Each structure stands twice: as structure tokens, then as C-alpha cells.
Amino acid sequence: MTVTSARPQPDGWQDWLLWARACAEHQPDKPMHQEAVDMLTADGGNLLGGLPSRIRATTL
Predict the structure, then answer these.
(1) What is the DSSP letter of 46?
(2) Model's pTM, two decimal places?
(3) What are phi and psi of 53, to 5 degrees?
(4) Strand pairing of 2-6 and 53-56?
(5) pLDDT tops 80 at residue 51
(6) Which residue from 14, 21, 22, 50 has the fewest beta carbons nearer than 10 Å?
(7) What's the mean pLDDT when you consider all of the chain?
(8) pLDDT, tens only, 5-34
(9) Dihedrals φ, ψ of 56, to 5°?
(10) Cα three-residue angle 12-20-58, rounded to 5 degrees
(11) How far is residue 24's CA from residue 31's CA, in Å, rounded to a whole number?
């Protein structure tokens, strides 16, 4: 994998939280989604953020 670009996204954790909540609602049998919701809610954007990346797969 090669990261071709990455940039900070202000309040990106809120987008991540929204996605985690949607996943938790859609797949309630997978506890990892609710764990992500709990983690992001507890952090409140203090340590965890968003860093959208563009990644290109490379062959080995």
C-alpha cells in the first residue's frame, strides 16, 4: 500500500462517529461498532480525529 495523500479534517471524529453509529444500527450483532461509538463519544475529539487518506494498493 502507498499513501498518496493525507490531510487533517477538522472535527473528523464527528464524521467517524456518525459512520460508527450507522454501522452499529445496521449490524447490531457486531460489538466492534458499538465499541467504536463508545470510544469516540468518550474521547469527544480530544485525541482521536480524522485524517482522510488516499491509498493505492501495490503488489508485492
Answers:
(1) S
(2) 0.69
(3) -130, 150
(4) antiparallel
(5) no
(6) 22
(7) 82
(8) 767 778 888 988 999 999 999 999 999 999
(9) -115, 130
(10) 70
(11) 8
Are the C-beta atoms of residues 5 and 55 closer than 8 Å to each other? no
Cell (9 digits) for 58: 501495490
Say which residue the cell 468518550 belongs to: 42
Reported as type and span, the H/E element at residue 5 is strand 2-6
Could you give the CA distance from residue 15 to residue 8 in angstroms, rounded to a whole number? 13
**pLDDT of the residue at 35:** 94
CA 43/CA 15 separation, integer angstroms? 14
Which of 29-33, 39-43, 44-48, 55-59 is the least confident region? 55-59
